[in-house]
Every structure is written in structure tokens, then in C-alpha cells.
Amino acid sequence: MAYQLVAADLDGTLRAEHKPFTPRVRAALKRAESRGVRVVMATGRMFRTAAPFAADLGLQTPLVCDHGATIHDVTTNEILYEKRVPLDLVREVCKVADGKLTLIACLDDEFYTQRATEDAVAFTGRFTEEHLHTVSNLGSFLTVAPQKLVFVNAQEITSRLFVDLTAHFGGRLQVVQSYVRYVELTHREASKGNAIAWLADRWQIRREQVIAIGDQHNDISMIQWAGLGVAMGNAVDSVKAAAGWVAPAAEEDGAAAVIERFVLDE
Asked: Which domains does the chain show, CATH number per domain?
């Protein structure tokens, strides 16, 4: 089977946490593209914070953002596909936060919160801190549906919150724990798996011709959908259980190893 599409998570997959892309990963991606293979970055990040990484790698393919809630054309910034969180559910989520938990609404590349805590600032990132806005009442302020909602709190709160939110919103919203301190909520049909399936259909690429690589819970949907689902060596156990192959860790250029073995036949 000749693979035609490689979908890869960003943080913890294409690069080690807070580290630059390595020469080996860059070279593997370029060689794959030179053979006509489409390489798609699929991340939980918003477009504003994800686009610089795609540009750094020279990727011209659409960029899957917000855990699959949006797909952007990187050359025009046009949104090709999106699933927003319904406003009635947004207000219900805000009631859960009750002004005591740090909750951020991500709307059209801007961040809105009632509590501009250190956690909120850290999540936003120092390069986009100017796009973090504090509002008095998040539920009533939002009149346009956001792409996603993010709880950013201490790890001990997050673990319990993920279970509670999954039980409360199961079937109505997609709930993922994307990091030890983040619980993120998107439209119930928003997932990396659905986004990659949409792109594959657009390009007339069969499911069997797709490789998906990731390390966190939000990557499971695309790993299970793809013809070959790959977990990074640093992936959480549930991702490894869902994968057909486990690559070396991101620190060991695991994403490059996948491409070299399954795409470049090296």
C-alpha cells in the first residue's frame, strides 16, 4: 500500500515539547512531499498559534486546528471547514466554571476569559498574550459561537474535571484532555479523525492510504481512523493501545522514523 497522506500532531509528535523541529524531521517531511505525499499538521492549537509552525516547516497543505474543529488554508487563511460550539452549550459550560475555574473561549484567533490568571496567560503564550481579553461575564459576552472552550487548571483539578465534563456533556460536546492541565471542549462532531477524513475525501485518498501519528488523547480519533495509526514512544497509554505501531519518542525523531519506514521505504 502506497501511503498518500500523513497526518501528524505537532507538540510531542513532530517536535519534542518546547523544542525546535530537528533536521531529521524536516528532511523526512520534505522527501515525503517530493514524492507527492501530502503532509498535514493536525493540532489542538488555534490557527494563530499553529500557523507559524506550519510556515517554519514550509507546509502548504491545509492546517487542522482546534482538535479538528477547523481546517484552514495556510496560503489564504480561509476556513475550509469548521464546527463551532453551540452558544447554548457555551453558556452551560460557563455555569460549570462558575467564575472559579479558569475557562478560556477561543473565538476567531482571539482568547476571552473572566479570569486572567497565570494559567490563562501561560496557555495563551507570551507571543500572543495581547490577544487575551478579560470580560466580566463570559457566557453573556459571547454572541458568536467559538471554535472551542478550554479549562486550564491545576493537574489535580483537571483529572477530575475531565471525568465530570465527559459525564455531563457526553454526546453533546467533544471533551478531550489535551495536556495534564487542559480540558478542551468542541462541537460533538469536531475531532482530528473527522477532519482528516474530510481532507482525504476532498483529495480522493482512501483511508488505507493514510498514516496518522500522535501522542495525546485528542489524537486517538485520527489514529483509529487511519489505515496506519502510530503512537509516539512518549504517548500516553491509551494512544499506544489504539495504535497499530509505536514509534520512537519525539526526542528520538519518532515522526521521522515513521515516514522513513512506511513512506520512504528506508
From this structure: 5-82+190-262 (3.40.50.1000), 87-187 (3.30.1240.10)
CA–CA distance from 8 to each of 13, 42, 54, 139, 224 (Å)? 7, 6, 11, 34, 13
Confidence of residue 183 (pLDDT cuts 50, 70, 90): very high
First vs last Cα of the chain: how many Å apart?
15
Query: What pLDDT score does 201 carry?
Result: 98
Looking at residue 25, what is its pLDDT? Answer: 98
pLDDT at residue number 1: 67
- pLDDT for 29-61, tens place per residue? 999 999 999 999 999 999 999 999 999 999 999
Task: Tell me how far CA of residue 208 lies from CA of 21, 91, 187, 202, 238, in angstroms.
Answer: 28, 40, 27, 15, 22
